[in-house]
Structure formats: structure tokens, C-alpha cells
Amino acid sequence: MSEQISFEPPRGMRDFYPEDMAWRNRVFDAFRAAATQAGFEPYDACVVESYALLARKAGEEVGNQIYHFTDKSDRHIALRPEMTPTLARMVAQRQHQLSFPIKWTTIAQCFRYERMTKGRKREHYQWNLDIIGEDSILAEVEVLGTACNALRKMGLKDEDDRVRVSSRALLAELLQASGIEEDKHASIFLALDKRGKIPDEGIKEILRDGGIDDNGIEKAFELLNVKDLDGVAKLVSQDSIALNNLRELFRLAEIAGFAGQLVFDISVIRGLSYYTGIVFECFDTAGEFRAIFGGGRYDNLLTTIGGDPTSAVGLGFGDVVVTELLKSRLGENAALPKNGVFVGFMTPDEKDAALKVAAKLRSNGENVNLCLKKMKPKQFFSRASTSSCLQAIYLGPDDVASGKAKIKNLETREETEFALN
Ligand code: HAM
Q1: Can you give the pTM of this predicted structure?
Q2: According to the CATH classification, is domain 341-419 in 3.40.50.800?
């Protein structure tokens, strides 16, 4: 006997039924509208990449999460866990044709063999915004402002979310000032990023294994207690570029109108090793969900893969967490505002008239959902009220005989008469 096929998708993968698709569209529409408003150009690539491009530095969690395999010609390939290496490859390929800075955007399906928790799947869509070839902090401001705008377009309020901002360059300065050598910084960043995910003792062990002595470990942990930029200013020189870049970010965000969304938080480090400067992560203010989006400056990635030195800033914004957050703040069924007309008929004799009304309304630009079978009034109006339509037209024999029918607003119950011809 053949094996029973499960009706479930493979673990961690998702099906999108119409009610799920309504949410996905709401989220994607906001991504696209915000990106377009800010002048980001769309691009795309295949989900399959060469494993060599995606292979990670030791300590990066995502390295153990890559789905990879060899194809029939023994090529080692993988499903991308993120878009950034692919973007770097595409830019490197056209490095001498592109006019920098470029502002590019995509909604990329990504795969990570993760431990499944709330907000984490093994496949997700990730909206990416990247600005390549711009050194100034205006690039950070543009990507952050665009992401905050998308949150507002989805229906979240200012008070629902905050972006926690820090800087790898600043942390590097602080570590240096504490006497910790530069070659140890990368492993310290990746270890400290695990804070809150594993016990502090586990992090200390990783740091010890990385060759950092107890004094260095203590200092690294102490730095995470700094609460604000004034606290930072006491520890670094007034000429600190990293500190001044953070101040510039807050100043420009004030002008752009979203400084209220930003908070300085030195404990934001990010789990990917390619970040070099300002880093950030957005969370819901109630602290219920995982990160909504994350990103930062990664000025060395292009050179790492063999391209010319090129500065870069970007972020990745997944669909999973934000959809959970939207459902909890707006209600499970709030995906789409009601729109369009639900049209039905009582007996087969009114079928042609119903089709004609539907065709006329559609030619006027209305969205019409025409019921394909005759229906009793109660059944029709119960379907109409659970549909995505705002209005309904139901034709019975009397309507066709009189040449007049009614269009009903399903929310206010108000009815307006109209001539069938
Ligand atoms: P990331 O922090 O690994 O960054 O992911 C960015 C966002 O993708 C997360 O904040 C979350 O919304 C979503 N995400 C990641 N993994 C999962 C998962 N397993 N399930 C659901 N959602 C997930 C990056 O990937 C960087 N490449 C972002 C970037 C672009 N940096 C510069 N440019």
C-alpha cells in the first residue's frame, strides 16, 4: 500500500488560504507602497544560490540553518536564508555600470532551518531595503524612515513599535578603550548578540573559548549597562565618529519626523557578522513578539565577496512577526477593508439579469462577486455579510418584473433603489 500523504505542509512551511492571503497582501501592499514613495527600485533573484556565497563565519547562527544540497551535476547549492549576499553578488557583477548610490528593494522568500518558535518559521518572506554606495547617515535615515512608514501604512500606531538603535563601530571603540584587541571584537559581537536567548553563563563560556580572559568578559558585559548617549560620551573621546554618527541619525530622524520611534540601546548587536556601523532592530512596545525588522550598515560585504569597496546600509523586514502583531492589535479578521458588491439571484429566471448587473458594475470599475447558484434570501445575505463586499444586490422575480432593484449597504443596512437597465 502506498504511504499516506499528510495534508499538512512540510514542518515550518506555510500554506496561504484566502484569509491568510488577505493578510499577506495587506503587508506586501504596505511594503511596496512605502518603498515606491521613497524611490526604492524593485529587483529580484532566484531563491537558489551557490552555497559558497552563503557559507558563514563561525558563530553565525544562520550558518547552521541553511538548507543545502548538491544538484545532479554535483554543484553545492542552497536555498537563500537571506537576500543580502545575493544583493552583494548582483551589485558586484555590475559594479562598473551602476551609478551609485542605488536604492533597491525586494520581497524575497527565505528559508532557514530554525527551531520553531512564535514568530519563527522555516520559510518567510522578507522585505529588503538597501542603499549601496552612500557613506552619509542620510542612508540609514532613508531606510529606517521607509520601514516606519510601512508600519503606519499597515495600520499600526506610533506607540505600537520602537526601533532600538546602536552601533558596532561604537561598541568596537568601547571594547578597544577597555583594552580588548580588535581581532577579538567580531566573536564578542556574535556572543553578546545571544544575550536573552541563552543564559549569560553560556555567553561567558563562548567568550572564554574565543580566547577572551575573565577581565575582558567582565568589561564587555559592563559596557552593556550604558543607558544613553551621554553615558557613552563619558567613555569615548568627543571626536568619536561612531558617537557622532549616532547623534546625526537622531538629529536627521527628528527632521524626517520619526525620531520618536527610535531609542538608543547598546545591547542591539545583530547576529550577522557583516555589520560594521549603525545597527538596529524594531520590536513591538509591549515586548510580546520577536524582532519585526533588523538591519544596519555593512560597508565591507562587497569586498568580502571580491567586489570593490562599497558602503552599504539596509534592512530585512519579515512578514511573520508583523502579521502576528497586526492580528493582535487590529483583530484576526481586519485584513482588508470591505469593498465591492455581492450580487445574487433567487431563481434561474433572474440569472441573466444578475449577470448583466455584474457586467455593468464591473465595466464601471466596481469589484463584483457574482454568486453562481440561485440562493434563498437568508442564505444570500448570510454569505454576503461574511464576504469581503460592502454592498449587496439580490434579484428576485419581482425585481426583474418591475425593472427596479435595491443595492444594500451591508454595514449601515441602508438601501438605494436603481433601474435594472
Ligand atoms: P535578520 O535579522 O536575520 O537580517 O532578518 C531580518 C528579519 O527577517 C527579522 O527581523 C524577521 O522579521 C525576519 N526573519 C528572519 N528569520 C525569520 C524566520 N525564521 N521566520 C520568520 N521571520 C524571520 C537579515 O536577514 C539581513 N540580511 C537584513 C539586511 C538587509 N541587512 C542589510 N540588508
Answers
A1: 0.93
A2: yes
